[in-house]
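Figure 6 in text form: structure in, sequence out.
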């Protein structure tokens, strides 16, 4: 594969929905959130390091990471947050690099790296082009509230803590406006698929 597209956007912008729409065109993807979970599974060195630093309180009875307990520790303490990122980020990046290399050796026309923190984490350096999924803030807040069982004030607070919309847009190579329904989204993805196939030097899908 000559081409890897990095897909990002704020909470509930539609990243997973968009990835599924590309999958209908035969496009594979890797989700950075899934990989972030993998690197702290039992048996992984990152989980061992975390358990050594914080002890039993960050483990569930079955030995898996208690994400909520860990979140509470690092939420309250920037230094601990940096320590945790120092342990997990290099491993996430290494694993993403492996997955993307496998895509590059595969025979799909192009592939996606879906990552909520594509720019913030520096993962944009792993891709050839970036696609930002954009929605107006009011719609983003509505979709967050209805999907995640939070109220609109909580959804608003989450959005406010993320990279500002205009900054994300300024960094995008391509923008997918997801202020539309599922059918509209499918059409926009089909347009992008044609462009990406052309960029990859391949004929359009038959
Ligand atoms: P997160 O990063 O927070 O996990 P996401 O960016 O992957 O979210 P999705 O889960 O794909 O976002 O979408 C958020 C919600 O909005 C979902 O409930 C999804 O069904 C809905 N949604 C996304 N796009 C559309 C659309 N074009 N029309 C209607 N609903 C949509």
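Output sequence:
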């Amino acid at each position: 594969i000559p081409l890897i597209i990095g897909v990002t956007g704020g909470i509930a912008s539609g990243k997973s929905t968009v990835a599924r729409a590309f999958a209908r065109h035969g496009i594979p993807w890797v989700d950075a959130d899934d990989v972030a979970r993998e690197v702290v599974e039992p048996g992984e060195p990152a989980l061992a390091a975390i358990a050594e630093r914080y002890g039993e309180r960050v483990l569930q009875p079955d030995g898996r990471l208690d994400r909520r307990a860990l979140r509470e520790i690092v939420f309250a303490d920037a230094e601990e947050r940096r320590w945790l990122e120092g342990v997990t980020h290099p491993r996430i990046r290494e694993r993403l690099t492996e997955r993307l290399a496998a895509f590059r050796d595969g025979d799909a026309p192009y592939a996606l790296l879906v990552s909520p923190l594509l720019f913030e984490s520096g993962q944009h350096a792993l891709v050839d082009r970036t696609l930002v999924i954009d929605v107006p803030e009011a719609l983003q807040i509505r979709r967050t509230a209805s999907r995640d069982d939070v109220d609109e004030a909580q959804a608003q607070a989450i959005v406010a803590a993320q990279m500002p919309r205009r900054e994300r847009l300024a960094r995008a190579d391509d923008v997918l406006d997801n202020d539309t329904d599922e059918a509209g989204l499918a059409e926009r993805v089909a347009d992008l698929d044609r462009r990406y196939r052309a960029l990859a030097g391949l004929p359009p899908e038959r």
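Caption detail: The longest strand covers residues 129-134.
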